[in-house]
Write a structure and sequence with these properties.
The chain is of the alpha+beta class. It folds into two domains: 186 residues, Transferase(Phosphotransferase), domain 1; 48 residues, no CATH class. 46% of the residues lie in helices and 12% in strands. The chain contains seven helices and ten strands. A hairpin with a 5-residue loop joins strand 4 and strand 5. Helix 2 packs across helix 3, helix 3 packs parallel to helix 5 and helix 5 packs antiparallel against helix 6. The termini are far apart. The model has no long low-confidence stretch (mean pLDDT 91). This is Ferric iron reductase protein FhuF. InterPro entries: Fe_iron_reduct (IPR008090), FhuF_C (IPR024726), IucA/IucC-like_C (IPR022770).
């Protein structure tokens, strides 16, 4: 998992080419340029699937180091005060912080993840929705996939890390409310009969993604293996 940490760097000043999150949200043309570059790179005119794929790669760079710090070390990075470096074709090259944040021993997941979820992802997803028309529930669904992947990976780390991952997973994903508001990470788990050759759980069913990520709308792509909209599975 070490390579995931390379997407986050710390220095007293942001690199000259990095764009602060606040600027990315305040100047819509910056995000529009990235989305159109991503759409051109994917070879699609519809910004929705391009935005979904782009946001998924954004999350791939953002979440692993912040989740590892929050769950395994009880440390909160300043997720709302970051800058992002973008590659020429629109991809996310990495994130930058000027301060190391704070250690929060003995705190719950709500306290450790609030800055990431409400200070970074909530306004970012809202702006991405305005720019591309991509439903925010799809972006939150992509977030749930990454959190699930990371928490599952932590199971191999042994105790107390596996227990910490299970506790944070439950606090983040299993409750309909988040500090008095609707929790966008709380999604109904979809279960279905397996397709031919697919291994099912003990109850004879397989777990599907809560949301379709629109990956099948990209040229040359198809429905992913756990897509709830796969026509073959729906039949």
């Amino acid at each position: 998992m070490r390579s995931y940490g390379e997407s986050l760097s710390h220095a007293p000043t942001f690199p000259a080419t990095a764009i602060p999150l606040a600027q990315l949200l305040a100047e819509p043309d910056l995000l529009t340029t990235q989305l159109r570059a991503a759409a051109d790179n994917f070879g699609v005119h519809d910004l929705r699937p391009a935005a979904s794929a782009w946001s998924n790669r954004y999350l791939a760079a953002l979440l692993p180091p912040l989740v590892a710090a929050a769950t395994l070390l009880h440390h909160r990075f300043p997720a709302g005060e970051m800058a992002v470096s973008l590659a020429p074709h629109g991809e996310v090259a990495g994130f930058h912080i000027r301060e190391l944040g704070e250690s929060l021993p003995g705190t719950n997941a709500v306290q450790r993840y609030d800055t990431l979820l409400r200070g970074h992802l909530t306004p970012f997803f809202a702006e991405l929705n305005r720019q591309s028309g991509l439903a925010q529930k799809i972006m939150w669904g992509n977030t749930v996939r990454w959190l699930t992947f990371l928490f599952d990976a932590m199971q191999s780390f042994g105790e107390p890390h596996a227990g910490a991952a299970n506790s944070d997973r439950a606090q983040l994903l299993d409750h309909a409310q988040w500090r008095g508001e609707a929790n966008p990470l709380h999604m109904r788990r979809k279960r279905a009969s397996p397709k031919p050759g697919e291994q099912a759980a003990a109850d004879g069913l397989v777990t599907l993604h809560s949301q379709c990520c629109l990956y099948h709308l990209l040229p040359g792509q198809d429905y992913c293996g756990a897509c709830p909209l796969d026509p073959v599975r729906m039949q």
